[in-house]
Design brief:
alpha/beta, Spore Coat Polysaccharide Biosynthesis Protein SpsA, Chain A, 7-stranded mixed sheet, 11 strands, about 20% strand
Amino acid sequence: MKAYAIVVKDNETSQRGYAKLVESFWNVKNEIPLVMYEALTPDNVEKAMKDNKVEWNYPWEGSVVDFSTGLTKHAYRTKNPMARMACGMSHFSLWQLCYETNEPLIIMEHDAFCLSKIDFKPDDTGFQIIGLNNPLGATRKSQVYHEKITSRSQPFQLAPYIDDDMKSPQGLAGNSCYMIKPSGAEQMISLVYKYGLWPNDALMCRQLVNGLGVSKKFYTRIQGLPSTTAD
């Protein structure tokens, strides 16, 4: 298993975040390799989507009911739509790598900060995808999310639902750090071709993904850096 960190080339925020990620990664004495993965950008994302026959299918404003899934898709705050699409395609590219190499991956974004050594074996988790990030400050209703995880006894558990209506995609606390197996990657790739590309943390949700879990032990937290997709 390797860890891949998605980093935006020539972006000061992303490079600064990655430097702190690297330092924290080795400070907790991780024994797996850490590889910098150059993110797709607004300049090259359209070509990547065309080459992979991927189409964006998520609103830029307001909310839209997706009749194919029954879910309500709520627009993310985004000043640069191409940057949001590039983020989604960067994760998609790593899902492809995971599936093609037939090896589990840890996928991280540049704003992750390591808290604990990655000390589990993917096959021991019982899930296809595992969120490893502390939810506090990383997602909406983060306190509710945190309490639901920490109140359970299982070290690995299903990602919690935080809404009662079940119409909004509910998954991981952002995608700053997660483990994905080849079977999980195959699921995600299939979802993209079935429903279109969404923000990766919306498409990777309990309602659509079988075996979506979280770790009770938090291996990372976010650094609190400015967003490279919302601004």
